[in-house]
Design a protein that fits this description.
The complex is a heterotrimer of chains A (298), B (264) and C (295).
Chain A lengths: L7 H37 L4 H5 L20 H31 L4 H14 L3 H16 L4 H25 L3 H9 L4 H12 L1 H17 L2 H6 L9 H7 L5 H9 L4 H29 L11
Helix pairs in contact in A: 1-13, 3-4, 3-6, 3-9, 3-12, 4-6, 5-6, 6-9, 7-8, 9-13, 12-13
Chain B lengths: L16 E10 L2 E11 L4 E5 L6 H8 L9 E9 L2 E2 L7 H7 E4 L11 H5 L1 H5 L5 H14 L3 H4 L12 H14 L4 E5 L7 H14 L4 E5 L3 H7 L2 E6 L2 E7 H6 L4 H7 L5
Parallel strand pairs in B: 3-8, 3-9, 6-7, 7-8
Antiparallel strand pairs in B: 1-2, 1-4, 4-5, 9-10
Helix pairs in contact in B: 5-7, 7-8
Chain C lengths: L1 H30 L2 H4 L3 E2 L4 E2 L2 H31 L4 H16 L2 H28 L14 H25 L3 H9 L4 H12 L1 H17 L2 H6 L17 H8 L6 H32 L8
Helix pairs in contact in C: 1-12, 3-6, 3-9, 4-6, 5-6, 6-9, 7-8, 9-12, 11-12
The chains are: A mainly alpha (298), B alpha/beta (264), C mainly alpha (295).
Chain lengths: 298, 264, 295
């Protein structure tokens, strides 16, 4: 027989390790299932059309049935849309611009330093970005505002857009650029017409990912936009006033202890998770297998 | 194909390795289509053929390395000293312990010293006695014609040697576990002529104590080191005879075309 | 024009650092080194020291790593060595990616409303019953404490560690595995003796990256850490991390010294994050040199 008795403990140890590794996978997946599961279970009862179209309820204790005790997260939804939208308005052009620079002028010193800085910024604790904006915007304008919130979100979004732009543009074959330039098309036009249109799926991915990230960010908003029980108006932007957001509702209501507020927080969490899921699926759908090398991380 | 599977000149010698209907492939494609081959002991047998003929897959089936690739398939039997290594009770770990392998590109473990590279197989099997390990290390390095070159730098990283030295290190590593069979998959293809010559000489010495199966695409190499040569084509065994006989008097037209360079 | 965007990014990070330094100048000049060595945070007395929060950050991140590293590495080994069925591996891989996509505020919410009661009613009493004599487990289990924060951080850094480790393990050449197999090694022995040593520095880099993520995490920690400015005396004490302190207190005071102290805490965080980031990058780059690898 080719097997040997003395080696059986090695075989058993091998089996043990395989079990342990399998276990670690299960143990790690369990929290995810629980978190998403609980969000769905707890939030399901709260979310309906009214939830999305009414402003937040007042805090109530259990059993209180006044009509101010039910409500929704409209103020948060509109606030989030506003601030993420404003942020994108700035972050997308800047991010794409930087990404183009990194991809088309990789030899330059600036490219190297900036690209490195970009990566660092992408992983940075977002609260420090919040503090930065707090110091230069909130303190000087003496108010929380949608602009401050948007500014903070923009800083969070830029590195993501820049990184995905750079990577998808780098995937465009050099021969394409060369062919275009050989036809006498100037460099800037080559970039805009040829390179970008070839890599546009990647650009779209970057934008979607950045939006997903910004939509879920809480910490910077706590110190820049704070909260309002009413949907944002022009006043929230200029001269500026506190603006609600969905993540802030989750934070504030979730820690409040008021039962109806806690339920609202779960509902908001469900809305947020659904939004993220939809965006993620959209990204997967758009990029398909084209960007196997780009590990999209939010 | 009973007469084909063993060269007539070997008479009644018990084969070291015998494959019966060995088939192997990936996914839904078979690369080897039923090989019946008897490998004689203490000889060098070369496996040759054009690219894609299945020679590397064949050899990797002999130490059950093939099945480690996802989607790999194997059928048939391979008998080592009469016992089927693919028997469902056989332990692949124990099988591989008895068969050593040297790869196309030298692959010493870069995080280990030369010494630890050589005795890696022994420490795996629980040998802790320093004296035993030292003895085995020197013995194997001498056996691989590498001892004099490295005896003063045994603690250097395994990756610090030249290509030819690295390959001899890998041979020493394979020798240290005292295998019965040594498989070599184009061991010289990544080396320069001097290193190649050293290793070919080594192979000729090794066959006194080991059965060696070598995959090669180099006809001259086969004629230099191999006692027997098996010619594969498109996953089938076409001809198998003493090397000299096969090269000078090929019985099959395919063999002749390959030898005279008419393809692959 | 695109070059300006690139320069802008550099300017942003530099500006961030400068602004934080500027904002902390009052606090730095008032407290000097005692800011990081003292443990008093008393607004009444105008004393602001950061040691309790540094400890909070380091302890919770430490627990997070202690729990998260083996789990993350286990997943990475499972995914890269591909010993399970194809479907299972793909499914697990996608699930772990999904884990990374959930915003931290939702982990925080779940943490407070589900994990904290669980810790308070089951895990911590059990701990007290078995190892309660140890000083690090002293105190009444309330659920909102450093330990729970550590657990939540572990959950959050598992995807980071596993994703980076998986890439690192995949970068180990197959010929190394085959060499070990051919000597007669079991699957686990191949991983332990050929794959992991080769991937050593990359895995260390993944760990540092996980640490960086844990140190910078704000919302998940805020929900469960108990929010106390006292120096935490045990794992079961409530406390604050650098991040959660800032998010809770910034904007709530009118005292410029308090404000400056909070900004100095941000500065500390900034420097900590930078150091960790540089370390991690260097290590992972060394491992996957040449591969178009982004963290």
């Amino acid at each position: 027989m080719v097997s040997r008795r003395s080696q059986s403990w090695r075989r058993n140890f091998d089996r043990l390790m395989k079990v342990l590794i399998g276990l670690s996978v299960v143990v790690a997946i369990v929290p995810l299932v629980l978190v998403v599961g609980d969000v769905i279970v707890q939030g399901w009862s709260a979310v309906n059309w009214n939830f999305l179209t009414q402003i937040a309820p007042s805090p109530c204790s259990a059993g209180d049935v006044s009509k101010f005790c039910t409500g929704g997260i409209l103020n948060g939804i509109e606030g989030s849309f506003l601030m993420v939208g404003l942020a994108a308005l700035v972050a997308v052009p800047v991010g794409i611009g930087a990404g183009i620079y990194f991809s088309e002028w990789p030899e330059s010193r600036i490219s190297f330093v900036s690209s490195f800085t970009n990566d660092v910024l992408a992983e940075f604790p977002t609260i420090t970005i919040g503090v930065f904006i707090y110091e230069i915007v909130v303190v000087s304008t003496r108010t929380y505002s949608a602009l401050a919130g948007a500014a903070a979100l923009a800083i969070v979004m830029v590195p993501i857009v820049a990184r995905t732009t750079e990577e998808s543009l780098k995937l465009v074959p050099t021969t394409l650029r060369e062919a275009s330039m050989a036809l006498g098309i100037p460099r800037w036009k080559t970039i805009f017409r040829v390179v970008i249109s070839t890599g546009k799926a990647g650009l779209a991915t970057g934008i979607l990912l950045a939006i997903a990230r910004a939509a879920g960010e809480t910490a910077p908003l706590v110190v820049t936009a704070l909260y309002s029980s009413y949907p944002p108006t022009l006043h929230s932007v200029v001269p500026g006033g506190p603006t609600a957001s969905v993540p802030y509702i989750i934070y504030n209501f979730g820690t409040s202890g008021y039962p109806n507020w806690v339920t609202t927080a779960w509902g908001a969490a469900l809305v947020l998770v659904t939004f993220m899921l939809v965006l993620n699926l959209a990204v997967k759908f758009f990029i398909g297998r084209k960007f196997a090398g780009v590990r999209a991380e939010i | 194909m009973a007469e084909l599977s063993m060269p007539a000149s070997l008479g009644g010698v018990q084969p070291k390795f015998e494959t019966r209907g060995l088939k192997a492939g990936f996914g839904s494609t078979w690369v080897l289509n039923g090989i019946d081959l008897k490998i004689p002991p203490n000889r060098v047998t070369a496996v040759m053929g054009p690219s894609g003929c299945g020679k590397t897959t064949f050899v990797r089936c002999l130490n059950r390395l093939h099945e480690l690739t996802p989607t790999a398939m194997v059928e048939g039997a391979a008998l080592l000293d009469g016992e089927d290594i693919y028997d469902k009770n056989a332990d692949p770990v124990a099988v591989r312990r008895r068969i050593g392998m040297v790869f196309q590109k030298p692959n010493p473990f870069p995080t280990m010293s030369i010494y630890h590279n050589v005795v890696a197989g022994l420490t795996l099997n629980g040998v802790r006695d320093k004296k035993k390990l030292d003895h085995a290390a020197e013995h194997s390095l001498r056996g691989a014609y590498l001892w004099d070159e490295v005896k003063d730098k045994l603690t250097d990283s395994g990756a610090s040697l030249s290509g030819g030295q690295q390959q001899r290190l890998c041979i020493a590593r394979a020798l240290a576990v005292e295998p019965e069979v040594i498989l070599m998959d184009e061991p010289c293809s990544a080396l320069d002529p001097t290193a190649t010559a050293k290793i070919e000489e080594l192979i000729t010495q090794l066959k006194r104590d080991y059965t060696i199966i070598i995959v090669t695409h180099n006809l001259q190499q086969a004629s230099r080191v191999a006692d027997y040569t098996a010619f594969f084509y498109l996953g089938k065994l076409v001809e198998y005879d003493e090397t000299a006989a096969l090269f000078e008097n090929p019985k099959e037209e395919l063999t002749e075309r390959y030898i005279t360079g008419k393809f692959g | 024009m695109v070059g300006a965007a690139a320069v802008g990014i550099i300017a942003l990070l530099v500006g961030l650092g400068i602004e934080l330094a500027y904002g902390s100048s009052l606090s730095i000049s008032t407290f000097g080194l005692s800011f990081v060595t003292g443990s008093t945070w008393a607004p009444i007395d105008n004393i602001y020291n950061a040691l309790p929060f540094l400890v909070g950050t380091l302890v919770t991140s430490g627990i997070g790593l202690l729990l998260g590293l083996p789990l993350g590495l286990g997943i990475a080994i499972f995914l890269s060595e591909r010993k399970g069925s194809r479907a299972l591996v793909t499914a697990m891989g996608s699930l772990v990616e999904l884990l990374a996509a959930v915003p931290s505020v939702i982990y925080g919410l779940w943490g407070l409303l589900v994990l904290v009661p669980f810790m308070r009613d089951y895990v911590e009493p059990t701990l007290k019953g078995t190892v309660g004599f140890l000083p690090i487990f002293s105190g009444t289990p309330l659920g909102t404490d450093l330990l729970t924060a550590g657990v939540i951080l572990a959950i959050m850094i598992i995807p980071t560690i596993s994703a980076v480790s998986r890439d690192v393990l995949n970068a180990v050449p197959n010929s190394q595995r085959e060499a070990m197999y051919s000597l007669g090694a079991t699957d686990w022995e191949v991983v332990r003796k050929a794959v992991l040593p080769y991937a050593r520095s990359g895995i260390f880099g993944a760990t540092i990256l996980g640490l960086g993520r844990a140190v910078g995490e704000t919302m998940a920690v805020t929900f469960v850490i108990g929010n106390s400015t006292n120096f935490p005396s045990s794992l079961l004490s409530p406390g604050y991390s650098l991040t959660s302190l800032i998010v809770n207190l910034l904007g709530t005071t009118t005292d410029p010294l308090a404000d400056s102290a909070l900004v100095e805490i941000s500065l500390l965080l900034f420097l900590l994050a930078l150091t960790i980031n540089f370390l991690a990058r260097g290590l992972v780059w060394r491992m996957t040199r040449g591969t178009k690898f982004r963290i």
